[in-house]
């Protein structure tokens, strides 16, 4: 679980991690400045094509990771339907899906170690001490890695609830979700300890 890098080799795997992360930051900012639905749809289509270039198997992995965005989009669209601003809701949902898909693309094609190196080099330029750099870089990278994994597990919990009950999922799912998160955190902690911890 400590790495979500796709086992399917793609042209993107060989791209430098620093450039991918910088490109992701600039791309995400640009996406949320899109004001026209047509432009947002074209950009979303371009991201989808980027997945398809790497093959159907890789595209399916990306599709699985973006599924939880559907539920968030459903909430957003419900609000905008009630406020009678459907077009704005569609624009927000397309921006969100595009940004998450792009982030997943970088996550799937960038090794954890490469992300750590980029973070450390960035902080070295800010004259932050080596020990603090290592800890901050590890913390940030683990957050990046945990978010899609926890999102996927949350979606699985909801699907399991629906398969066993006709009622809507409720706050009662928070406890098993928290236990899953703690279990993952414990596994990562044990893995780090086995490798000598963080200096």
TrEMBL record:
Membrane-crossing residue ranges in chain numbering: 20-53, 65-82, 88-112
GO cellular component: plasma membrane
Primary residence: membrane
Alphabetized UniProt keyword annotations: Membrane, Transmembrane, Transmembrane helix
Cross-referenced InterPro entries: ABC/ECF_trnsptr_transmembrane
Keyword Transmembrane helix listed: yes
Coiled coil (residue ranges): none
Pfam family, one: CbiQ
Membrane topology (UniProt): Multi-pass membrane protein
Cell compartment(s), UniProt: Membrane
Entry's family note: Belongs to the CbiQ family.
Name of the protein in question: Energy-coupling factor transporter transmembrane protein BioN
Record lineage: Bacteria, Pseudomonadati, Pseudomonadota, Alphaproteobacteria, Rhodobacterales
């Amino acid at each position: 679980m400590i790495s979500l890098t796709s086992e399917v080799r793609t042209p993107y795997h060989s791209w430098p991690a620093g450039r991918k992360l910088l490109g992701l930051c600039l791309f995400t900012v640009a996406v949320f400045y899109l004001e026209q639905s047509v432009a947002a749809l074209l950009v979303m289509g371009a991201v989808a094509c980027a997945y398809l270039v790497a093959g159907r198997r890789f595209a399916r992995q990306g599709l699985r990771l973006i599924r939880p965005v559907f539920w968030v989009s459903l909430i957003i669209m419900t609000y905008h339907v009630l406020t009678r601003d459907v077009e704005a809701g569609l624009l927000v949902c397309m921006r969100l899906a595009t940004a998450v898909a792009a982030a997943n693309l970088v996550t799937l094609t960038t090794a954890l170690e490469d992300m750590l190196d980029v973070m450390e080099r960035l902080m070295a330029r800010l004259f932050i001490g080596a020990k603090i750099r290592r800890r901050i870089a590890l913390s940030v990278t683990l957050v990046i890695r945990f978010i899609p994994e926890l999102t996927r597990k949350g979606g699985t919990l909801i699907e399991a609830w629906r398969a066993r009950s006709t009622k809507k999922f409720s706050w009662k799912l928070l406890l098993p979700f928290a236990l899953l998160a703690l279990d993952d955190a414990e596994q990562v902690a044990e893995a780090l300890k086995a490798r000598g911890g963080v200096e």
